[in-house]
UniProtKB/TrEMBL annotation:
Superkingdom in the source lineage: Bacteria
EC number(s) stated in the UniProt entry for this protein: 1.2.4.4
Protein name (Swiss-Prot/TrEMBL): 3-methyl-2-oxobutanoate dehydrogenase (2-methylpropanoyl-transferring)
InterPro entries to which the protein is assigned, alphabetical: DH_E1, THDP-binding, Transketo_C/PFOR_II, Transketolase-like_Pyr-bd, Transketolase_C
UniProt function note: E1 component of the 2-oxoglutarate dehydrogenase (OGDH) complex which catalyzes the decarboxylation of 2-oxoglutarate, the first step in the conversion of 2-oxoglutarate to succinyl-CoA and CO(2).
Cofactor(s) needed: thiamine diphosphate
Organism: Sediminibacterium ginsengisoli
GO molecular function: branched-chain 2-oxo acid dehydrogenase activity
GO annotation terms (biological process): branched-chain amino acid catabolic process; response to nutrient
Segments crossing the lipid bilayer: none
Keywords, comma-separated and alphabetical: Oxidoreductase, Thiamine pyrophosphate
CDD domains per UniProt: TPP_E1_PDC_ADC_BCADC (cd02000), TPP_PYR_E1-PDHc-beta_like (cd07036)
Length: 688
């Protein structure tokens, strides 16, 4: 309920936000890192944060320092991030101002926030997805307000970001599943230097009308009372009805877009004056007088705010910078899987296909971990995956744990950040490697950076299953290899098993790893139907079997006598390359050693360099197009590390450098490596 006391509290926070903005602008040499402030947006932001509970989740965007103040963060804490100091509570000096993350139990939780506009909509909707699951099926694991009410999620956005396609994916999922999320859209009529009439045909309120089941509200976001009432209605609706709502708040932009893109660069005097008429600070000050708050109390609040900011800024300036040695901390959270455990080949166990090994691994995981869920395109009960890699799982565990999604690769990938944050353990699937690219934005911007930029607070535990590779006429959009593209992303792990036992052990390790892990699963090996891949079928490991990531395997060892004579070559490969190499090795008994990498990152460099040193002749084999590939980079690393032990330059063999894999099988064979082509290369190496 709005009272004079609450209004005065809001005014003090608003005066604090203004003092912070003015201080930063007056000290541009000190505030050298790019930043934005909430100047003009204070009323709607304060009205939002002041009504949230500690059990709630909020995703502020880069202009939301007033939200941060209203949920309990101090100017000093915010300034530590502004100046990139060691004790920055959000990122440890790694990220921009007002890019928070917090697990503090006495204020709303905040997952990692990136700069990419609108991208937070998907991870934040993933939070609401996880909360909805927990409240239905594991209510004892979910926090509540002091009154015993369930938590909600608030996603703050600028209106310009609503034109992003990923915002649409988030809204679609929220209304489909009826999630308890409030989308707060702050509309200041500008997207950097582009005005609203240049870049959109409608505002967010009108746009939201197309999402059936999404409640819509709007208000003057410069008016604190109207903002408080509107956000109160929105929060109560999401909290009690457990349904999504969008609030469109029109606000002035009184500050700069950022400290680096200043308002005088692109805005006219008339525009600035027009926005100045809606300054929320004098509006609220006048209201305080109207409701009988004495002038001296208002002035005292202003003085206290300025003194607080001034003292905090002085203190923040002399705070320590991060230690240089900390730069590589928190890229990954430590994994519990350090060594191989369980029985890889139990007595009397049957041989199984790779596709069944993956299916059984996920089934055993879901039996043991009720917080594990599986979703993606066509993995639900009717089909169980286009390769039947999820067959029967929906029947066994229910549609709430195994379900289909729309064709929304970005949502499939990015929602796992929110789910992981609330304690869920998502396993998700993109139907073909060729179709992963719409999900790359979330993979790069949100998931890969979350642990590092949150200073270790929010690693993202997820497994992303990706069927990959050519398998005989699959065509240009169902046969591609993407590992080199994935491996340019830092902060994720990439696994590529080549047989059933490895598939099961690595799937278990990937699931237990608290970081994002991508399982590349070769379609041509799933069923062992490609000639020469029969050995992809192996004895099924037991339920407890787990294989650590980053451990290569010697699939075939060379003969010791041939090794002593220098008559051997080492083939370093993975996936289908293992079977091409095994086919060729039969033509050179004892002379070919095959190392299966099994995990591309982390990479078992020790095993690779040791093998290269032993043999002196090395060929790195890949199914990918060769130029600029992971395999070429690996060959260089081998050369640099093992130069004095090499008898010949490290060879690389991959596919031809074509834009796609042709559908005609004759053309496909011409493009890809084959045993015949590989035999020619090995023969030349052996002649050195």
């Amino acid at each position: 309920m709005l009272t004079p006391t609450l209004l005065l509290q809001a005014y003090k926070l608003m005066a604090t936000a203004k003092a912070m903005c003015d201080t930063y602008d007056a000290n541009r040499q000190v505030c050298k890192y790019v930043h934005s402030t909430s100047r003009g947006h204070e009323a709607i932001q304060l009205a939002t944060g002041m009504q949230l509970s500690a059990c709630d989740w909020v995703s502020p965007y880069y202009r939301d320092d007033s939200i941060m103040l209203s949920v309990g963060f101090t100017p000093y804490e915010l300034m530590l991030q502004l100046l990139a100091k060691k004790d920055d509570p959000f990122s440890g000096g790694r990220s921009y101002y007002c890019h928070p993350s917090s697990r503090d139990e006495d204020r709303p939780f905040i997952i990692h926030q990136s700069s990419a506009t609108g991208m937070q909509a998907i991870p934040t909707t993933g939070l609401a997805q996880g909360i909805r699951f927990l409240e239905k099926y594991a209510s004892e694991k979910i926090g509540r307000t002091a009154e015993g009410q369930l938590p909600i999620v608030v996603c703050s956005l600028g209106d310009g970001s609503v034109t992003e396609g990923e915002v649409s994916e988030a809204l679609q999922f929220a209304v489909l599943k009826q999630l308890p999320v409030v989308y707060l859209v702050q509309d200041n009529q500008w997207s950097i230097s582009a005005s609203s009439d240049e870049v959109r045909n409608m505002n967010a309120f009108d746009y939201a009308q197309g999402f059936k089941g999404l409640k819509r509200l709007q208000c003057d976001g410069s008016d604190f009372v109207r903002s408080y009432e509107t956000m109160g209605e929105a929060i109560a609706y999401a909290r009690m009805e457990r349904k999504p709502v969008l609030v469109h708040a029109k606000v002035p932009l009184l500050g700069h877009h950022t400290s680096g893109v200043r308002k005088e660069f692109y805005r006219t005097r008339e525009d600035l004056l027009k926005h100045g008429l809606y300054d929320p600070l004098p509006k609220l000050r006048l209201l305080l007088t109207d409701v009988g708050v004495p002038e001296h109390e208002v002035s005292a609040a202003e003085t206290e705010a300025l003194e607080l900011v001034t003292e905090a800024f002085k203190k923040a300036q002399i705070a320590q910078d991060p230690h240089a040695a900390s730069v590589a901390d928190h890229v990954f959270a430590p994994t519990p899987v350090k060594e191989e455990k369980g029985q890889r080949s139990p007595k009397n166990a049957e041989k199984i296909l790779m596709v069944d090994a993956a299916l059984h691994a996920v089934e055993e995981i879901m039996e043991e971990y009720p917080e594990a869920i599986l979703y993606g395109q066509d993995v639900g009960g009717r089909l169980g995956g286009v390769f039947r890699e999820a067959a029967t799982l929906a029947d066994k565990f229910g549609d709430h744990r195994v379900f289909n999604t729309a064709i929304q690769e970005a949502y499939i990938v990015g929602s796992t950040a929110g789910l992981s944050a609330v304690g869920m353990k998502p396993i998700v699937e993109v139907q073909f490697a060729d179709y992963i690219y719409p999900g790359f934005n979330q993979l790069v911007t949100e998931l890969s950076k979350s642990c590092y930029l949150s200073n270790g607070k929010f690693p993202v535990q997820m497994v992303l299953r990706v069927p990959i590779g050519a398998y005989g006429g699959g065509g240009p959009y169902h046969s591609g290899s993407i590992e080199s593209t994935l491996l340019t992303i830092k902060g994720i792990k990439v696994v590529y098993p080549s047989n059933a036992a490895d598939m099961k052990g690595l799937m278990k390790a990937a699931f237990l790893d608290p970081n994002p892990v991508i399982m590349l699963e070769h379609k041509g090996l799933y069923w062992s139907k490609v000639p020469g891949t029969e050995d992809a079928r192996t004895t099924e490991p037991d339920k407890d079997y787990v294989l650590p990531l980053g451990k290569a395997n010697t699939v075939l060892a060379a003969d010791s006598n041939a090794l002593k004579k220098g008559e051997t070559v080492c083939v370093i490969t993975y996936g289908m390359g293992v079977y091409w190499a095994k086919t060729v090795a039969a033509q050179y008994p004892g002379q070919v050693e095959i190392i299966d990498l099994r995990t591309l990152y982390p990479l078992d460099e020790e095993a690779v360099f040791a093998a290269a040193t032993r043999h002196g002749k090395v060929l790195v084999l890949t199914e990918e197009q060769q130029n600029n590939s992971f395999s070429e980079a690996l060959a260089l690393r081998i050369t640099n590390q093992c130069y004095h032990f090499l008898d010949a330059r490290v060879e690389v063999m991959g596919a031809m450098d074509l834009p796609a894999v042709p559908i005609n099988t004759v053309l496909e064979a011409m493009m890809l490596p084959t045993p015949a082509k590989l035999a020619e290369r090995i023969d030349k190496l052996l002649q050195y």
